[in-house]
Design a protein that fits this description.
Elements lengths: L2 H22 L2 H10 L4 E2 H8 L3 H13 L3 E6 L2 E6 L1 H6 L2 H9 L4 H15 L6
Antiparallel strand pairs: 1-3, 2-3
Length: 126
């Protein structure tokens, strides 16, 4: 591999890391990642647990999607989000943050408990 190609790869990785850190620089986005660590969720579940409006949730989700931290899939009229396994493999520090550090934050613990209640109530987006 030439020096130019290697330098280009380094610059691309640097840019990706910068986008990732910027995407993580918000409490609601950290809370969303915490919710998604256990699997795919509909945007309406995220809104309900965080107590935010659809426009606010979409803004946060789009920021993380642009950084490729999450991916989405449209099913009927609903959009479902999940963590992007590829980016977590590429940048293992993300797994450490989501798996080990986020669970230490009290509001994130509360969010998971609330999500569990929502799921147990068979609440649905439909």
């Amino acid at each position: 591999m030439s020096i130019i190609a290697y330098t280009h790869i380094q610059m691309v990785m640097f840019a990706d890391i910068v986008y990732i850190f910027k995407a993580l620089a918000d409490e609601n986005r950290i809370r969303i990642l915490n919710l998604l660590k256990n699997g795919e969720l509909c945007v309406c579940d995220i809104e309900a647990v965080l107590g935010i409006k659809q426009s606010n949730a979409s803004r946060h989700l789009n920021r993380m999607k642009t950084a490729e931290i999450i991916v989405s899939e449209k099913k009927s009229q609903w959009v479902y989000y999940r963590l992007n396994d590829n980016i977590f493999k590429r940048f293992p520090f993300l797994s450490i943050i989501v798996s080990d550090e986020v669970e230490k934050i009290s509001i994130c613990k509360d969010d998971l408990a609330l999500l569990k209640k929502f799921k147990a109530s068979d609440r649905s987006c439909d």
